[in-house]
Amino acid sequence: MAIVRPGLPRFFADTVDTMEGNGPLQVRDSAAGRLVAEDKHMFGMPGISALVATSDRSFVIAAPAGNDFSCVTRLYRFTLNAQGRPGRLSPLGQKVRGHVWSLAASVRGQVIGYAVSGCAKGQPGYLAVLDARTGRTRQWSDVSLGGESPGNVAVAGPFLSMSANGRMLAFAGWDVAGNWHLVGYGHLTRQVVRVLPTGAAPGTVAQRSHVVLSRPLSEPDLAAVAVSPDGGSFYLCTQRDRRGQSMRTISAYATATGALQRVIVTVTGTPVPAACQMALDPSGRSLLLTNSLSKPRYPRNPVLGLARIDLTTRSAATLTIRLPPNGGMDPYTGMSTAW
Fold first, then answer.
1. Domain boundaries, the chain
2. pLDDT of residue 46
3. 8-state DSSP, 98
4. Is domain 11-338 given the CATH code 2.120.10.30 in the classification?
């Protein structure tokens, strides 16, 4: 029987991602990845676009607020009961015009950060924060998200992370020279990790954030970051794929200086189309990382591997999850998780 370190959340939430979008909300146990609950009727297609944990068994998700073509997103809060079953959805804030790609949250979800692309190619993207207590929002423009929007700063994934007090957003990505209108156009100048104070005045992300780590484009991809609860450090996932194998390295860096503190672990697996998909538990002591995805011939089940990484002992355990066969019509691309 799999053993979980004391203090680790008993459950995590996830969506299985495909080329056509995200699947329904699922809940799994942290010990072995066993499916505990699946709600296929919570939203219907195209499903949840982003999710984040706000505390043990409490989550916020983003989902379409109308039909597939309305390009309006709504944030919802829900909690799990003692058996891991999701409760009723509570709308959070106002409807968001655009597609929400990523969510980040402070402890207890008092501050919610999100990344939004426009409703059509060429429309601007932005980052925003919502004060859940007052309903007020603040946003910063000129961001490229998933190739769906132009901007002088591009967000990898795109994945956001937030400190526990809600005062800091961090993300990995690229700086872009010129006006980047579409994927493949424009000039990427460097890979970066940027930090954005959530109390910064409105403006562009390039104006209001600062670079804490910079790497040449030739080095392994700076794929995702997770900020420690106190904001003093961040965990960076770098990845390199070659010869049918993927290597993902988790390292800790000082937020103030960008100095390397320690290399945590390197895990290997079969390549996953999505970049480093990882989630930090509320205590800041463990990470979930989507690490491998097999592509067997139909009707065999694809197998997805999650690395459960103990940041203190620098050890990794693998959770093996068998996905339903889909005949290759809508290939799996990874798994978004939150705990």
1. 11-338
2. 52
3. S
4. yes
Residue corresponding to tokens 């002992």: 313
CA–CA separation, 265 and 309 (whole Å): 8
Closest CA to 101 of 144, 149, 156, 158: 158
Token output for 219: 């080095």
Triad 328, 25, 94: Cα angle to 5°:
120
Task: Please report, as a single letter, which amino acid is at residue 172.
Answer: A
Q: Indicate left, alpha or beta for 156 from its phi (over 0: left) and psi (-120 to 50: alpha).
A: beta
Region 175-193 average pLDDT = 71
Based on the number of CB atoms within 10 Å of its own CB, is 142 exposed (0-12), middle (13-18) or buried (19 or more)?
buried
3-state secondary structure of 292: strand
Distance, C-alpha 136 to centroid of its chain: 23
- 271-302 pLDDT per residue, tens: 898 889 999 998 899 999 999 998 766 667 88
Nearest to 149 by CA among 97, 113, 112, 191: 97
Which of 266, 330, 320, 329 is closest to 293 using CA atoms? 320
Residue type at 296?
P
pLDDT digits (tens, 9 = 90+) for 70-100: 789 999 999 999 999 999 999 999 999 998 9
The residue type found at 326 is N
Question: Between β-strands 315-322 and 303-310, what pairing exists: parallel, antiparallel or unpaired?
Answer: antiparallel
Q: What is the pLDDT of residues 144-161, one digit of tens each?
A: 886 667 788 889 877 999
Q: Please return the burial class of 133, using the count of CB atoms within 10 Å of its CB with bins 0-12, 13-18 and 19+.
A: exposed
Q: What is the pTM for the complete model shown?
A: 0.92
